[in-house]
Design brief:
The chain is of the alpha+beta class and about 375 residues long. Helix content is about 30%, strand content about 35%. A hairpin with a 4-residue loop joins strand 1 and strand 2. It is elongated, with a radius of gyration of 24 Å. The N terminus is likely disordered. GO terms for molecular function: protein N-terminal-serine acetyltransferase activity; protein-N-terminal-alanine acetyltransferase activity.
Length: about 375
């Protein structure tokens, strides 16, 4: 595979009301003022910003940024508003042209925080990394307790890869870091999961265009789905839905394990609900199966048909040999679906689930291939 091309021409990026442009030598004073203003909020996570930080440090950083750009090792930008005021710094560093990967880092001055500046800037820079530099993976590595930067990564739709011990240094000491990753957008025609059809139903991967229907479905279903699913609350936002869709699509590519599908009306492709596999245990050949149907479509046999359709596919087309359905013991509607689908009741597991902080007993059901004959 060819190396990522090294581009040396200066680039300015539009980011929804703000701009990203390469640092200029004459920016040293503006960078110094933005940094000094932000010591209290930024220095706990970026040790280079300390009480002794000087204008000379700003000039040195700009020179290093320019040199890194020339060597193809980094793309570092000033974040500026419409009036040219410096709002912070963002960059792709540790660019590996052979592996086509890079790290994304950012900070925003105190007076501009809480306004979505970092999110807008990071979206624009990630797009540049994928479309111009040809990157296939961008990592965001953040101190575990750096809540603000972690929230920015999550708003970007970055996948949380996990916590890495001793990944960074803070004030000279090794510290754990939360590692997030961004992958290039998929081509619109790409299908990251199976499409299964039977009767009037279609099971298919979630698409970004499903966001309004997903949001509406859950908000109409607070009395039913919300009663048993702690994530289904009136606070469930469009942003929550966008992250969920991105998460499920990544899972079908092997990143994460929330392999969910839309339950759709076969004739209209309208979203009715969702069914999916998670908590995979490859070594035991088993996974969990979960489902929900929007309130206006309940009690029509939709969930039962979807469970059987996905279970048949999973138990015949994959290495799975057993599917578990774990349901709050008092959730009689979902238990009825499992039983109608042919799942075998194995017993009550005490305090198996937690809902809004409270432990619940759960009914355990299982499906194996012979149950679906």
């Amino acid at each position: 595979m060819a190396d990522t091309p090294i581009l040396t021409a200066p680039t300015e990026l539009d980011a929804q009301g703000i701009r990203l442009r390469p640092w200029r030598t004459e920016d040293a004073r503006a960078l110094y003022e933005a940094a000094r203003e932000s010591i209290a909020s930024v220095s706990p996570w970026l040790p280079w910003l300390h009480e002794g930080y000087s204008a000379e440090d700003s000039a040195r950083w700009i020179a290093e940024s320019q040199a890194g750009h020339e060597r193809g090792e980094a793309r570092t930008f000033a974040i500026v508003d419409a009036d040219g005021r410096v709002l912070g710094d963002i960059g792709l560093n540790r660019i590996d042209s052979k592996r086509r990967s890079a790290n994304l880092g950012y900070w925003v001055r105190s007076s501009a925080q809480g306004q979505g500046v970092a999110t807008r800037a990071a979206l624009a820079l990630a797009r540049y990394g994928f479309e111009v530099l040809g990157l296939v993976r961008i990592e965001i590595v953040v101190a575990v307790d750096n809540t603000a930067s972690r929230r920015t990564a999550e708003r970007l739709g970055a996948h949380f890869d996990g916590t890495s011990p001793n990944r960074i240094l803070l004030n000279g000491a090794a510290a754990a870091a939360a590692v997030y990753s961004l992958l290039p957008p998929e081509p619109s025609e790409a299908s990251p999961g199976p499409v299964l059809e039977e009767g009037g139903l279609r099971l298919r991967p979630f698409r970004p265009t499903d966001l309004p229907a997903l949001h509406a479905s859950l908000h109409e279903s607070m009395d039913s789905i919300g009663r048993w699913q702690g994530w289904c609350t009136p606070g469930f936002s469009m942003e929550d839905g966008r992250r969920w869709i991105a998460r499920t699509r990544l899972a079908w590519h092997g990143v994460g394990d929330e392999c969910a599908l839309v339950i759709a009306d076969r004739s209209t492709d309208e979203l009715i609900g969702s069914v999916g596999l998670n908590h995979w245990q490859a070594e035991n050949g088993m996974a969990n199966l979960g489902y929900w149907v929007r309130q206006s479509q309940q009690e029509r046999g939709v969930a039962t048909a979807a469970v059987r359709l996905l279970a048949r596919h999973a138990l015949h087309a994959t290495e799975l040999r057993r599917l578990e359905i774990v349901i709050a013991a008092d959730n009689l509607a979902s238990r009825s679906v499992a039983e109608k689908a042919g799942a075998q009741f194995e017993g009550i597991a005490r305090r198996r689930l937690t809902l809004r902080g409270e432990p619940l007993d759960a009914a355990i059901y299982s499906l194996v291939a012979s149950d679906l004959a």
